[in-house]
Amino acid sequence: MSYIVVDVEADGPIPHKYSMVSFGAVVLDGTLSKTFYGQVKPISEEWIPEALAVSGLTREQHLSFKEPEAEMARFHAWLSATSSGRPVFVSDNLAFDWQWINYYFHFYLNENPFGFSGRRIGDLYCGMKMNTGLNHEWKKLFRQTKHDHNPVNDAKGNAEALLKMNMLGLKIPIG
């Protein structure tokens, strides 16, 4: 099993009505050198300018991205090539990021290689500290790569946090 840290940028709050813009993934290993970056063109005419602006991209740029089916197939192939066993989806905001990846995988490829579950980093940290009130503390303590809404950078910062949590005793698969 391989932990894959994923981050998604979108132009609205829900799949289908709005569109995923870009996504990044990092294999949780000692190097964090296995990364994936995908950009997909809109699947909807609806979009929220403020949501798209978070990604630093314009609607015109978003319209020029690759077809979702091809990009999801490329991501699926990358997961197959870089994962040891079944990949496990890990994210800062699991409820947001997973819904996009799950929707796009099922809609375009009829399957989600991650299955139907994942791990939220804040919950792992709270469990490690045995205190559910520490939900966001890990972000300030452990990220090294700046959180800038480039999904690869954001996924990498989250993976760095997981590596530090592992060094502090959290047993998670690294490698």
Automatic annotation (TrEMBL):
Keywords assigned: Exonuclease, Hydrolase, Nuclease
Keyword Hydrolase on entry: yes
Transmembrane segments: none
InterPro entries linked to this entry: Ribonucl_H (IPR013520), RNaseH-like_sf (IPR012337), RNaseH_sf (IPR036397), Rv2179c-like (IPR033390)
Single biological process term from Gene Ontology: DNA metabolic process
Pfam families: Rv2179c-like (PF16473)
GO MF annotation terms: exonuclease activity; nucleic acid binding
UniProt organism field: Ohtaekwangia koreensis
Location of the Exonuclease domain: 2-171
Protein name in the entry: Exonuclease
Nucleotide-binding recorded as keyword: no
